[in-house]
């Protein structure tokens, strides 16, 4: 178990120089939306309430990107802040911080491979096409529930790679914390008969946030066969102010290829890294898009035809990774983890 991400001195300097505070706009924005829904501000009009519901849902979705940043521990200089903010956000999303971090480490190391637990069932060649065709739509609509279940598989599955007693104890304790917090909340809701209000200000926006999150996951991954981080993900480099703002509010996670290849790279450097790859390798047709809508449109056929990644998208079985014992985010997945036969951009 690696409880903290180990950074090089250069990586530490880059993290120290970036300013993540302004990116945390998602936290107060969602809270403001919940407040406006609760007090029905500025008026109890259906159109106004619909606006605040979508607004709150979107910024709750941005909480998932902040959660992602805490798992990498690239949010700020303090790892302690990342861990405890991650636990707070994970509790809100029914997902223990440690199980998410362990799952996400493997997602980076074994992208699109059968051992990519985070992309189950799309990465699992033992699942049937019929099941995946059904599940992908269930996953899209009910992401609020499927995401915690998919991450939880890493802990509860009989073949879980999590064998460290320390890791399993940490996850178990975080699950207990989630049950305790939500048990208290549910008790209070019953006592004060506040279910209708809670459903309106939290339940519906959280449900929408789950749809947004599943849409992002599918857009960036579904239908991608390559195990190479730069070719096995869709990258969005925003050309409009709206796409750029959404990218900003989500800690630049939309620039997904460079993020997958360099998991410890500060998020504010991902755009520059992508531009560098494009400049140095004009012959490579990177799956990049100028709008998120364009990336979604490219992903859409996979939802109807064969929902899958890696082998389930037509790739050959992956070769043995260079580092089979990955327990932390590496500096460069292609050079440190990916087998040479699977590295389509081995010269980059």
Explain this structure to me?
The protein is mainly alpha-helical and 348 residues long. The chain has one domain. 58% of the residues lie in helices and 1% in strands. It has a two-stranded parallel sheet with strand order 1-2. Helix 2 packs antiparallel against helix 3, helix 4 packs across helix 8 and helix 6 packs across helix 7. It starts with 8 loop residues before the first helix and ends in a 12-residue tail after the last helix. The mean pLDDT is 94.
Question: What labels describe this entry?
Answer:
348 residues, mainly alpha, globular, two-stranded parallel sheet, single chain
Short description:
This protein is 58% helix and 1% strand.
Task: List the strand order in the largest sheet.
Answer: 1-2
Class by helix and strand content?
mainly alpha
The biggest sheet amounts to: 2 strands, parallel
* Number of helical stretches of at least 4 residues: 14
What proportion of the residues form beta strands (DSSP E)? under 5%
Number of strands: 2
Shape: globular
Give the helix level as a range of percent: 55-70%
Q: Compute the gyration radius: what is it?
A: 20 Å
Mean pLDDT: 94
Low-confidence stretches: none
Number of domains: 1
Order of H and E elements? HHHHHHHHHEHHHEHH
Terminal-residue CA separation: 31 Å
Please give the structural blueprint.
Elements: H1 9-17, H2 26-39, H3 46-72, H4 79-92, H5 97-109, H6 129-141, H7 143-156, H8 165-192, H9 195-221, E1 235-236, H10 241-249, H11 256-261, H12 270-280, E2 288-289, H13 292-304, H14 333-336
């Amino acid at each position: 178990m690696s409880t903290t991400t180990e950074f090089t001195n250069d990586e530490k300097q880059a993290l120290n120089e970036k300013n993540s505070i302004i990116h945390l706009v998602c936290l107060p924005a969602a809270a403001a939306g919940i407040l406006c829904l609760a007090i029905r501000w500025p008026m109890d009009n259906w159109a106004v309430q619909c606006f605040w519901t979508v607004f709150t849902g979107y910024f709750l979705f941005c909480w998932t990107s902040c959660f992602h940043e805490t798992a990498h521990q690239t949010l700020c200089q303090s790892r302690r802040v990342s861990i405890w903010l991650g636990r707070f956000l994970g509790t809100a999303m029914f997902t223990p911080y440690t199980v998410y971090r362990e799952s996400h480490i493997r997602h980076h190391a074994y992208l699109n491979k059968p051992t990519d637990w985070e992309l189950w069932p799309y990465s699992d060649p033992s699942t049937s096409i019929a099941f995946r065709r059904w599940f992908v739509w269930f996953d899209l609509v009910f992401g609020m529930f499927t995401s915690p279940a998919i991450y939880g598989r890493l802990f509860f599955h009989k073949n879980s790679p999590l064998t460290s007693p320390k890791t399993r104890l940490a996850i178990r304790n975080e699950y207990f914390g989630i049950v305790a917090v939500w048990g208290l909340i549910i008790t209070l809701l019953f006592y004060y008969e506040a279910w209708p209000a809670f459903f309106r200000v939290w339940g519906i926006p959280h449900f929408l946030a789950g749809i947004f999150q599943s849409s992002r996951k599918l857009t960036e991954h579904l239908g991608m066969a390559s195990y190479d981080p730069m070719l096995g993900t869709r990258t969005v480099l925003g050309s409009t102010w709206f796409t750029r703002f959404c990218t900003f509010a989500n800690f630049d996670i939309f620039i997904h290829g460079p993020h997958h290849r360099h998991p410890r790279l500060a998020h504010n450097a991902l755009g520059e890294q992508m531009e560098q790859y494009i400049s140095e390798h004009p012959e490579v047709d990177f799956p990049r898009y100028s709008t998120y809508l364009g990336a979604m449109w490219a992903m859409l056929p996979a939802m109807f035809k064969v929902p899958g990644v890696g082998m389930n998208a037509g790739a050959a079985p992956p070769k043995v990774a260079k580092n089979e014992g990955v327990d932390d985010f590496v500096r460069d997945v292609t050079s440190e983890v990916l087998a040479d036969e699977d590295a389509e951009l081995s010269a980059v």
